[in-house]
Amino acid sequence: MPQRASLTEKGKILVNYSYICTKFNSMARKKAQYPLIEGLEITTLAAEGKAMGRWNDVVVFVPMTVPGDVVNVQIRNKRRRFMEGVVVEYVKRSPLREEPFCAHFGVCGGCKWQNLPYQTQLDYKTQQVCDQLVRIGKLEIPEVRPCLGSEQQLYYRNKIEYTFADRRWLTHEEIAEQGDIAPQPALGFHIPNMFDKILDIEECHLQASPSNEIRNFIKEFCIEQGYSFHNARAHEGLMRGMILRTASTGDIMLSVIFNEYDQPKIEALLSAVNEAFPQITSTIFFVNEKWNDSLTDQTPICYAGKDHIFESMEGLKFKVGPKSFYQTNSEQAYELYKVTREAAALEEGDTLYDLYTGTGTIANFCARQCKKVVGIEYVPEAIEDAKVNSAINGIDNTVFYAGDMKKVLDNDFIARNGRPDVIILDPPRAGVDEPVIDVILNAAPKRIVYVSCNPATQARDLALMSGMYRVVSVQPVDMFPKTAHVEGVGVLYRK
Question: How far apart are CA 377 and CA 382, in angstroms?
Fold first, then answer.
């Protein structure tokens, strides 16, 4: 039984509470003093989908604006070198501006560039890659090629994740119009920077049919049957999340994440979904009782159909499991891998190392152009899929290893598997660990092809290699239209 607080402890509690109240009131007064900037001209795009202008030589970041807008801005965050604010009034709208197509624009954190022409998006992505390499990496680079655009700009994602919540996010407009609103469940996306706030999604333009239909069916079924939705703060509620994969082959994988093992309710829901959508080829569920949402340490359970789906590319088939990584824009992934393969300039006798290989997509895509491919990936399940992908495609010159890159890839590993002639890197957003770079430099391949989803970490890593390697070409590729994200393929030759 907990002990009662002593008078001294109570005094501390009161003092702390008083301090918090004082601090909060001070912050409130400080924020109340933030300026309202009138007639701010938005001059350029900035990182993370924001745009910016200058006020008294201070940079002002303003979301949901485009170059050419003139706006009145209420400052909400003030720092020594910059400020952030929100639009309270449009004085003049830019001729660049396009009408957003999504009803959730401005609240949902995705597709922030719906209001920009696509060519403008590509131009900025090209400039973003160039700026990061020069500013962060301090690199001497050739002219960066124009960003390779995606033919499909809507409904291009093959994977999308939704989260359940027992209370949906209410917009300021809803609160102003309706006053007090009873709590309503949600199935949708996280509000940016808020782990427990979920925007209920009616229609998403990122994934093709029947994605929206399946999501809405599951939500309505759960409400009608009295299923409890998850509360992230209390860690209560059965329904936690769902993931939909729609492959280029026509395969569809539905993964539903539950907070506890309630067999009757799980079976009732999944049975109803499969009956309503017979085109689903793989029905998976997870029971994640942890506080965090990660599924890497959770066991997928196949309820119906196959425990995998297949993707297809240039006549090759790729097995994708519920925890496997596969590029989320299938059609544009093919363009990205063609750029990568061409940049590798493989010869018949070459040994290729494919680091961060995932399910072996790049490895198998390049295997027929060289003597041997060695792939390394952190996720064991992905490596097993990579081996299967080689087998089903009749590829016998690949070997794959699972483990932490900085622990697996060392000089002994290279001695056992052969010194690489070419290395392809496709790391996560955090980039490459410095010990891994040291091993790569010691291996001294003729060429390095660095595929990156984060130009900043790519620039940092290329700078660490610049003593031995020079950048000969850079090709940005747009994998995520309507967003500020961009992939960059940097090609390095040994000096």
Answer: 7
Number of domains in the chain: 4
pLDDT tens track for 30-75? 555 799 999 999 999 987 778 999 999 899 999 889 999 999 999 9
- Residue 88, domain CATH: 2.40.50.140
> Smallest Cα–Cα separation from 84: which of 133, 123, 46?
46
| Unique residue bearing structure tokens 């297949």 | 310
**pTM confidence score:** 0.86
Do 334 and 444 belong together in one domain?
A: yes
Strand duo 82-92 + 58-63: pairing: parallel
Do residues 52 and 69 touch, judged by C-beta distance below 8 A?
Answer: no
- Domain that residue 13 falls in: 1-30
- Burial, 21: exposed, middle or buried (Cβ in 10 Å; 0-12, 13-18, 19+)? exposed
Report yes or no on 111 lying in a domain: no
Q: Which of 314, 321, 327 is nearest to 426 (CA)?
A: 327
Q: Which amino acid is at 455?
A: P
Q: How far apart are CA 364 and CA 391, in angstroms?
A: 10
CA dihedral 312, 318, 321, 324 (to 10 degrees): -100
Task: Select which of 102, 222, 366, 453 is catalytic.
Answer: 453
Distance CA 258, CA 271 (A): 15
Are residues 472 and 392 both part of a single domain? yes
Q: H or E stretch including 58?
A: strand 58-63
Task: Identify any residues that bridge with 89 across adjacent strands, giving them in sequence order.
Answer: 72
Give alpha helix (H) positions in 33-164.
Answer: 118-135
453 is catalytic: yes
Provide CB contacts within 8 A for 425, sequence distance 6+. Answer: 355, 356, 432, 448, 449, 450, 451, 452
Structure confidence by residue, pLDDT tens digits, 300-352: 999 999 999 999 999 999 999 898 888 999 999 999 999 999 999 999 999 99
Identify whether residues 371 and 260 lie together within a single domain.
no
Q: Distances in Å between the alpha carbon of 415 and those of 104, 412, 419?
A: 54, 5, 7
Cβ-based neighbour number of residue 96 at 10 Å: 14
| Residues 278/197, Cβ–Cβ less than 8 Å | no
